[in-house]
Amino acid sequence: MAVTCVVVERCWTGGYEGVSDFVDGVTAIATSGHVLLAVFVSALAGLVSFASPCVVPLVPGYLSYLAAVVGVDDQARAQPLARARLRVAGAAGLFVVGFTAVFLMGTVAILGLTTTIITNGVLLQRIGGVVTIVMGLVFMGFFPALQRDARFTPTSLSTASAESSRS
């Protein structure tokens, strides 16, 4: 209890030197046994993480997904309120599970790639050095075949409706 009082006093009076002291103080509050305060801090952290740049782009898709689930058709109005709420909660849960699966698979792939890169670091450094030297020689003009300028000019495609209007 004494630790919590000191931490709260420092929070309100600005007695912390830096961010790490503040984080240590919040951690002490959360672990000192005051569950209600810990729940409040957790909810506040959830709100802050919801406003993070990683989550904000997902919100429009989430809201439009839920709007399509809820809908404004006659069948939705005929359903009992409890069933409609369960349907929306289930859809929200599946949406979250879907994004969790995608980000989890991406994280696992990146971690696997990181392990491969670390294991083959010396080889990749040598390959990068050779590519850098070759590109420097190309820019200096030592490989005339690589100094060509090639452009792609697409031809216009005609459609069936355009040809029938000409006739």
UniProtKB/TrEMBL annotation:
Keywords: Membrane, Transmembrane, Transmembrane helix
Ranges annotated as spanning the membrane: 35-68, 88-111, 123-146
InterPro entries referenced in this protein's UniProt entry, alphabetically: Cytochrome_c-biogenesis_DsbD
Superkingdom assignment: Bacteria
Keyword Transcription belongs to the record: no
Name of this chain's protein: Cytochrome C biogenesis protein transmembrane region
Taxonomic source organism: Mycolicibacterium chlorophenolicum
